[in-house]
């Protein structure tokens, strides 16, 4: 990166030959390592759209054979899987909206130097990052609030994260000049107006980053649903459903609606299609959100 | 609470007369309004559970509630410390975290240094995109992929091994192999994402240093060893210390997604035991005591790590 090429044309020396070899080695190594991140998906995708017989005979590597989408039809016919996708979408949307709202308003208020009690409130928030009560007190709280087996137990408890607050606050401090806010105050604008008309429009990238942190975190987490959702099977989010189907294999696929397509019985094919089904939403948004994630992580590395 | 426009102005005459909290409330009431909901969330969902910690010192009965249950001092802790599961869980938690540190910590540094040597921008960005991907997947999906790839009978890796004429390896079904797979999958999941911080640090290295090194005849290896690494040393030390602070932590989701009935020796860690005792068996007092034990040690480690970092002249964590 920071090594500029020599300007003068170089002769084919021993050193240059060695350099080329080293380069080749590095390119090859990185290619191999990055393939370990790609090929598993190619393999599982190939498995999911191949004919069962080939999968049972362990004949599928990277290229599907006997392409068909029966396994996906079966996944979509299982009402409980579609339901879990619906639950995940609703929970993630509500969680992200609430989390982003709380983070923006607290980060703005606590980045105002004149606010009395600012240090104390910041301390209260940051303290929760280093010392948590733990699984059981959280569980008993949900129990006492009658939130076990409800939508709320997946939406409310984690929806304000100290780490995201820290990133947002640091970013407000660094990117929005105090003088701008002060002059708006002198012009008679209220803090609400400054927040909605100046700070938010100027901070779109960081807001996108934070809301993506919330959304992806919520989409991927399953332990709280495992703890809190016991009786209401219809409230299982996708990841938890996937856990029971694929990892614990304690549940089987139910094709509802009568029409049995293709008679797929091999669990490997169904598991593969389920994994792709659950991964696809992430893979689809991934190329667009990666940039925001990288930026957010770099801001997060600078401590408050 | 209704304020006219002029009174909100910090310099207004009206305010200089009042004093104390009331004055600040009057001046900044909008900011306090903004803080109301976030503080409510923090108090209800983070601080209210602290009161639940009291049951670690009580013989908690659900019917009696927090207040009605009897105080029993440290006898719950004595009971917990005496259990065989407890020693095993602490040992496993430390073992898994130490292995993660030993194998997982250097990997992002090495990768970042190699990525830094790549000059082709397109190749580099494609590789980075692929390397970051596992970070975005849930542990359930990674567990599912793991079983799909590594199962003895139908996993593609074992099919390849068998095709090459060797006997299959029980990657996830044998205790020792499970440990290896667990660590490798963890390294795989986090190595790409971990490079971001190091790459950012490398970008900050003054390019004149490289030029000076080249003039002195340093090759690529020497430039890396004597320029890049010393320049990102503080980042490395800070992250290392931060990771030392996490030695008693551990992701429940990662272990739970990779655990199975055939390889159970290393899967009993503190978070898993808390889940089993508390939520599966309803032994809330004991599970809370165990969780509290972990949190307190974790907090002590973080504070210790922060202290060491500051003593070494690095940025602290807190």
UniProtKB/TrEMBL annotation, chain A:
CDD domains: TM_PBP2
Domain ABC transmembrane type-1: 122-296
Segments crossing the lipid bilayer: 20-46, 85-110, 122-142, 148-166, 269-289
Compartment(s): Cell membrane
Main location: membrane
Pfam families documented for this protein: BPD_transp_1
Domain of life: Bacteria
Gene Ontology biological process terms in this record: transmembrane transport
Keywords: Cell membrane, Membrane, Transmembrane, Transmembrane helix, Transport
GO cellular component, one term: plasma membrane
Its membrane topology: Multi-pass membrane protein
Protein's name according to its UniProt entry: ABC transporter permease
Organism for this UniProt entry: Lacrimispora algidixylanolytica
Lineage start: Bacteria, Bacillati, Bacillota, Clostridia, Lachnospirales
From TrEMBL, chain B:
Gene3D superfamilies: MetI-like (1.10.3720.10)
Boundaries of every ABC transmembrane type-1 domain copy: 90-305
Membrane-spanning segments: 31-48, 94-115, 136-157, 177-203
Any one GO MF annotation of this record: ATP binding
GO cellular component, one term: plasma membrane
Gene Ontology BP annotations: transmembrane transport
Highest taxon of source: Bacteria
Keywords linked to the UniProt accession: ATP-binding, Cell membrane, Membrane, Nucleotide-binding, Transmembrane, Transmembrane helix, Transport
Pfam families named among the record's database cross-references: BPD_transp_1 (PF00528)
Protein name: Polysaccharide ABC transporter ATP-binding protein
Cross-referenced SUPFAM superfamilies: MetI-like
Membrane topology, as annotated: Multi-pass membrane protein
Family: Belongs to the binding-protein-dependent transport system permease family.
Matches recorded under InterPro entries: MetI-like, MetI-like_sf, UgpAE/MalFG_permease
Subcellular location: Cell membrane
């Amino acid at each position: 990166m920071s090594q500029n090429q020599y300007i003068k044309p170089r002769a084919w020396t021993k050193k240059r030959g060695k350099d080329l070899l080293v380069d080749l080695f590095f390119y090859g190594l990185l290619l191999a390592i990055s393939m370990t991140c790609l090929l598993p998906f190619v393999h599982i995708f190939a498995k999911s759209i191949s004919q069962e017989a080939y999968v049972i005979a362990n004949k599928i590597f990277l290229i599907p054979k006997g392409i068909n989408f029966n396994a996906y039809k079966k996944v979509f016919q299982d009402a409980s899987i579609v339901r879990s996708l619906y639950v995940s979408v609703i929970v993630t949307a509500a969680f992200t909206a609430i989390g982003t709202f709380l983070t923006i308003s607290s980060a703005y208020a606590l980045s105002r130097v004149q606010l009395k009690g600012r240090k104390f409130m910041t301390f209260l928030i940051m303290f929760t990052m280093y010392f948590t009560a733990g699984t059981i007190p959280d569980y008993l709280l949900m129990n006492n609030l009658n939130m076990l087996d409800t939508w709320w137990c997946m939406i409310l408890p984690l929806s304000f994260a100290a780490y995201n607050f820290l990133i947002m606050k640091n970013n407000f401090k660094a990117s929005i000049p105090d003088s701008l806010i002060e002059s708006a105050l002198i012009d008679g604008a209220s803090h609400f107006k400054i927040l909605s008309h100046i700070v938010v429009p100027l901070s779109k990238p960081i807001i996108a980053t934070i809301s993506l942190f919330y959304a992806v975190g919520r989409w991927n987490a399953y332990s709280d649903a495992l703890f809190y959702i016991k009786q209401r099977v219809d409230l299982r989010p996708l990841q938890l459903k996937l856990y029971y189907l694929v990892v614990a294999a304690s549940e089987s696929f139910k094709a509802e609606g009568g029409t049995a397509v293709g008679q797929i019985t091999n669990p490997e094919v169904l598991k593969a299609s389920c994994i792709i089904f659950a991964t696809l939403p992430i893979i689809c948004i991934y190329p667009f959100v990666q940039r925001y994630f990288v930026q957010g992580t770099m801001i997060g590395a600078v401590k408050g | 609470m209704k304020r006219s426009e002029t009174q909100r102005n910090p310099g207004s005459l009206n305010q200089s007369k009042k004093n104390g909290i009331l004055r600040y409330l009057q001046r900044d009431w909008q900011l306090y309004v903004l803080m109301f909901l976030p503080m409510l969330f923090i108090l209800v969902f983070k601080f209210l559970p602290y009161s639940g910690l009291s049951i670690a010192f009580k013989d908690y009965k659900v019917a009696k509630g927090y207040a009605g249950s009897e105080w029993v001092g440290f006898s719950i802790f004595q009971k917990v410390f005496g259990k065989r599961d407890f020693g095993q869980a602490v040992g496993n938690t430390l073992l898994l975290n130490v292995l993660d540190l030993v194998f997982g910590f250097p990997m992002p540094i090495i990768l970042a240094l190699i990525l830094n040597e790549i000059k082709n921008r397109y190749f580099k960005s494609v590789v980075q995109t692929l390397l970051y991907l596992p970070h975005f997947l849930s542990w359930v999906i990674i567990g599912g992929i793991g079983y799909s790839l590594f199962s003895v009978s139908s996993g593609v890796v074992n099919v390849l091994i068998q095709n090459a004429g060797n006997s299959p390896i029980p990657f996830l079904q044998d205790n020792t192999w499970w440990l290896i797979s667990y660590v490798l999958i963890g390294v795989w999941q986090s190595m790409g994402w971990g490079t971001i911080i190091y790459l950012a640090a490398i970008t900050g290295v003054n390019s004149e240093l490289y030029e000076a090194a080249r003039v002195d005849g340093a090759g690529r290896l020497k430039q890396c060893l004597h320029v890049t690494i010393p320049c990102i040393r503080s980042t490395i030390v800070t992250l290392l210390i931060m990771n030392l602070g996490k030695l008693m932590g551990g992701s429940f989701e990662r272990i739970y997604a990779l655990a199975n009935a055939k390889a159970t020796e290393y899967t009993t860690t503190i978070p898993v035991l808390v889940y089993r005792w508390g939520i599966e068996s309803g032994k809330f007092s004991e599970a809370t005591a165990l969780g509290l034990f972990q949190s307190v040690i974790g907090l002590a480690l973080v504070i210790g790590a922060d202290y060491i970092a500051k003593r070494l002249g690095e940025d602290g964590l807190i």
